[in-house]
Amino acid sequence: MCLCIGGLLILLRRAQRRERDLSARLVDLQAQREGVSQGICRQCAQAGEVIPEDVERFKRSQYFARIGTWDWDVDTQQLYWSEAIYGMFGYQVGEITPSYERFCNSVHPEDREQVRAGELRCIETGENHDEEYRVIWPDGTVRWLRETGNVIKDAHGKAIKMMGVVRDITEEKAWANQLHSLAHKDALTGLANRLVLEQRLSAALDQGRILQTRVVLIFIDLNGFKAINDNYGHAAGDQVLITTAKRLKNLVRTADTVARIGGDEFVLVLEGLSSDLNIEQEIHVLCEMIIQALSTPTDIAGRTCVIGTSLGVAVFPDHATGMDDLIHTADLAMYDAKRTGDNQYRLGSQLGV
């Protein structure tokens, strides 16, 4: 997993570095095109001559970099798109006439206010324009774009135009989401991993201290899991883990946390429990539900697999007031339950801690 995360980070950094370099180069080329190339192209078109090589290179650089240049006349609302931009909005080159109104209508409704505010800030302050936003294609496809640019002013300091570049970053957004998932979720079950577990447990304890509520931490270890891996293969073992994760999620509230912290070990965090509850009775009912749910036979590729479980329970603030002590107590209770036989649970209070 570490190698995978590192590889994604390298790809993201390379893409960001490439964007900065290309954006700077293309803005410079755009300025040249504005001051020189348009006039050359118009003269060439009238004379029926070939487009100059520098303009052709400019177009090719945009095509291969998948970056397009744009300029927007603030007063007339006229909008220029280079050829590379049409496809970013779901159109063929020449299929539509770019306009500021069409651009605004293409931006995702939830992002329009942000984009407009960025444009106004750039016009009023001269700050660089740099926004990420979604666009909706005519067929309903949603893509992510990143737009950078700045304002052009006349001799009197009045903003007359904005110019810049735009790039499709949909793939990079997908990489970032995948990276976030790898960093925060167990890859097999989709549950929270150890990092997220500790973050949520810490937050739950802080909330418990403020509201004077209880937090219940349950460590769960599967019994007989190694035999399933050895006898039926790791694919069967993976299916048992996935099934266990689903069953645990179905037992708790959406506000509670279900995590897998490695191998066949799972953890539950139940927060916001009233201090008036008979906590031992509540835990007894919950643990019996967990044991029953996890001991239900699982059919895997025509084979019936049955596993047992051992549970260790620690309660804040009854058994510990700090996160590390609470985790240690639940862990000790789980191993004590494991020593006493299959499908057992132990409370931190039964350890004398």
Automatic annotation (TrEMBL):
Keywords: Cell inner membrane, Cell membrane, Membrane, Nucleotide-binding, Repeat, Transferase, Transmembrane, Transmembrane helix. It comes from Pseudomonas laurentiana. SMART domains: GGDEF, PAC. Its cofactor is Mg(2+). Its main location: membrane. NCBIfam families: GGDEF, sensory_box. InterPro entries: Biofilm_reg_signaling (IPR052155), GGDEF_dom (IPR000160), Nucleotide_cyclase (IPR029787), PAC (IPR001610), PAS (IPR000014), PAS-assoc_C (IPR000700), PAS-like_dom_sf (IPR035965), PAS_fold_3 (IPR013655). GO terms for cellular component: plasma membrane. This is Sensor domain-containing diguanylate cyclase. Transmembrane segments: none annotated. One of its GO terms (molecular function) is nucleotide binding. Pfam families: GGDEF, PAS_3. It is a multi-pass membrane protein. Residues 73-126 form the PAS domain. It is found in: Cell inner membrane. Gene3D superfamilies: 2.10.70.100, 3.30.70.270, PAS domain (3.30.450.20). It comes from the Bacteria. Residues 213-350 form the GGDEF domain. Residues 129-181 form the PAC domain.
